[in-house]
Amino acid sequence: MNGKPYIAQRPKRADGRRNYDAILAAARKAFESAGADASLEEIASQAGVAIGTLYRHFPTRAALVEAATRDGLENLVAHAERLAAGPDPLEALLAWMREAVVHFSTFRGLVGILAQSMYDEGTPSHTMCSAMHRSGADLLRAAQAADRVRPDLTPDELFDLLSGAAWVREQATPDRDGSARFLELVLEGITTRG
Amino acid sequence: MNGKPYIAQRPKRADGRRNYDAILAAARKAFESAGADASLEEIASQAGVAIGTLYRHFPTRAALVEAATRDGLENLVAHAERLAAGPDPLEALLAWMREAVVHFSTFRGLVGILAQSMYDEGTPSHTMCSAMHRSGADLLRAAQAADRVRPDLTPDELFDLLSGAAWVREQATPDRDGSARFLELVLEGITTRG
DNA sequence: ACCTGAACACCGTTCAAGT
DNA sequence: ACCTGAACACCGTTCAAGT
């Protein structure tokens, strides 16, 4: 429909770059403690800038969230490539799944944003999400080719399972995090048994 | 910590009851279209009452959500009892799980509220949630006693799986709802195979 | 090119005045 | 016992004025 979604860019001028970095650092801290709907005014004030400066660099909340989580998604993609080179395609997939669940639940509300991004091209994180989606799909295909995962499982279904696990983790309290067990149970359902 | 959570009560006076019902109807509609964080002012205005009247009946958003979903949870408990009387304990559990997932995802944000209520006694829906939790646990225990479900699955784990499925459904668009398949895959992981 | 902060809009929440 | 709506607070968002 509309044009390309706005992707935040690190400014070239020194003062702009300093503020950009300070806002991102404050945003990550705020998201982790208050979730994806943390107060933008609070973030600006923690970063020591006026609210207009935050909006100049990140015109929408989605752009700020995307910038704050870009590194993590890139790491996930890079790690998938390293894992794909390993000997055991099932172990590679499982290790990546565990890592993905942890990243998806970095802060409350993130997994919902990622799930929407996956299927909405109008979203800042859509491109990164698609790349990550492809990484996971590649690992899945390899594990299926080796007859270690049921052949009828699609990449979309894999991501529903991962997102569900991440959501459980996002809801968890330190004393009660069911996401590891959740993933374990899911794996029982998708791995092939001899 | 603090006293009992406030549970909304249907008033005795006719005008109060009329408003109470109108607010609930408007709230259900608003929650379904805008999620659990729908505008309260909009709900009051749709119900034809002043904002103060909404607050008089439902002093917190949680109280309004609880009142709007109380019937559904009661039905779920009642249905569990009927199912428990049936001949096949696995079928009973599965039927109830499917129904629970649908109810948990009545509107965006509900499953998160329910998940919190399950473990936070300070919440209006805690009592209802606990009753529902017991219903599910009973069906689970019966299916395990019949050797149809893995014996090491706990009720808390069952609810994590149900909540994850409901969350996937909550995110879904009409053309893409992966929750049925999600549940199917989960069932592969928890049923015992001969 | 970047920053500031006042200004406006919207919504949640409370409460004094009413019937 | 219940209703009304003004009042206050808080936050998102824009924009004119500045460097």
UniProtKB/TrEMBL annotation, chains A, B:
Gene3D superfamilies: Tetracycline Repressor, domain 2. Coiled coil: none annotated. Residues 17-76 form the HTH tetR-type domain. PANTHER family: HTH-TYPE TRANSCRIPTIONAL REGULATOR BETI (PTHR30055:SF234), HTH-TYPE TRANSCRIPTIONAL REGULATOR RUTR (PTHR30055). Residues 39-58 bind DNA. The keyword Plastid does not apply. It comes from the Bacteria. Keywords: DNA-binding, Transcription, Transcription regulation. This is Helix-turn-helix domain-containing protein. Pfam families: TetR_C_43, TetR_N. InterPro entries: Homeodomain-like_sf (IPR009057), HTH-type_TetR-like_transc_reg (IPR050109), HTH_TetR (IPR001647), Tet_transcr_reg_TetR-rel_C_sf (IPR036271), TetR_SbtR-like_C (IPR049445).
